[in-house]
Structure prediction request, 582 residues.
Amino acid sequence: MSVVLEVTNLSKRFGRLQAVNSISFSVEKGNVYGLLGPNGSGKTTTLGILLSTLNPSEGKWSWFGNPGTSSDDLKSIGAIIEHPNFYTYLSAEKNLKIVCEIKGAPYSRIDSVLKLVGLFDRRGDRFSSFSLGMKQRLAIASAMLNEPKVLILDEPTNGLDPEGIIQIREIIKTIASKGTTIILASHLLDEVEKVCSHVIILKKGVSLYCGSVAGITAKNGYFVLEANNLKSLKNELEVSGDFSEIKEDSGRIIAYMKSDLNASELNKKMMDKGIYLSHLSKEQESLEEQFLDLVKQNQ
Amino acid sequence: MKRLIRIEWLKNYSYFPVILFSGIYFILVIGFTLLCSLKSIPILGIAVNIRDQGFLNFPQIWNFLTYITALLKLFLGLIIVFTISNEFTAKMFKQNVIDGLSKKEFVISKVLTIGLLSFISTLVVFFMGIILGLSFSDKTGISLIFKEFYFIFGYFLKLFTFLSFLFFITVLLKRVVFVFLSFFIWWIIELILLVVEYTTKVVEKYDSQGNRITEIPFLITDYLPLNVMSNLIDEPFQRIQLVNKLTGGSFEFKVPYDAVGASIVYSTLFILGSYWLIKRRDW
Prediction:
């Protein structure tokens, strides 16, 4: 798989604040990446550096194998950082014409990207008359003008109503299905879980994890168990040696597996020991739990 | 280059301040041309006849017209300040860069706009001069018409330097209010410095016949940007009085090479300085 973006030891300091602290990650072609992290974790700063609007304090990176960010690279990257920025006094169509000129895309692309985001009927209206959701969709349209190899979205659903959020997600999924690499920065974990195949987790400017969503969640599966005799159940589980951690939580036992176990096998095992389970479910930790775990570990 | 001009055109042609200030500018220029062609203009109750005073004679018409129309350069300055300030305050510069316009291309596109605006204004003044001169000049003739053609070039350079100056402070301060406030303050500072240097350095002497001689030594304040710009085109009234004297006084025009050189240096510094600021800053 070819590498679209490779970041090595990138740092950015604003006066006394270390906004990004020596982060490294790489982005492979065709995947949808979630750049995760709480507010102030350095997501936007990192993207700002990679898009050449901020000067890095230290570190190296390369787009498509070329070191740094050239304006030619930027022409094949579609990016939306923070708010959608357009000339407020111009219509959607005229704004896109300017972007076409900058990116070197033909004007004929304008109609098709406006249709993609459902703004074709409003193309002649001034940008200032658009709602936030429409502005955000126009920004996506603008980013898609040059059929980008990579699409970067920074908090694309921030401040939108539920309908707007769903629209944006649908658009992202449509774009992703065409094989465009996407980097989606967000602090909304369920959003990332819904659309991303890979995650990069940042915290206070440090990268904690970079890899597939499946990779991060497969590490820890767990069972939720109930029985009449919780104590002996817990005992048996501990004796079996299959679990790394066993805890009691409001009348249930939660047991974290060392390696993958079959639920029916566990059931049979317990039955053989004379313990009858009244509840048995095998669960995966959600991205949110994983994320919180990771963040806690690194405190 | 064509691409950058197209981008600038798309950005600006329907921007309200651009329409407003270029409208005012052209109405004033055309109005002034018509005013010059009148037989008498009432100024403060006195009927002044520009034609009879010799203002419209070749070659001094160039001096007169470029001096007067240059007073209107503020309106062109407003166009530059408003459009460039909007690029920064509306975060459009940042968006342009993200979209793939390099910082260098951004600066070049603004320099092209400044150059084009100065060029159009110069062309307008040129045609004003040709029309008014051919209609009202006492004498015409190719060599006389183009004798002091320096003023056309000087006018272009004056506008270009002025607009580059505003470009630089707009990049530096970003907001329209700050730009004009600081421009005004800078103007006053230059005036004060000029007065101070003039009163301390210039000596008045009397020669053996008791005639007063004013010795003007090298003045540093002559090389401050706004003074350089104003030295590019000297005021035309003294020379016209001189030529008008019944005694048949004559006037020999000299090109102010110092001011021309300094203007070119300043424009270059302002443009490079803007580029340096844009490159160095975090956006």
Notes: The interface with chain A takes residues 3, 6-7, 10-11, 14-16, 86, 90-92, 94-102, 105, 280, 282-283 of chain B (CB under 8 Å).
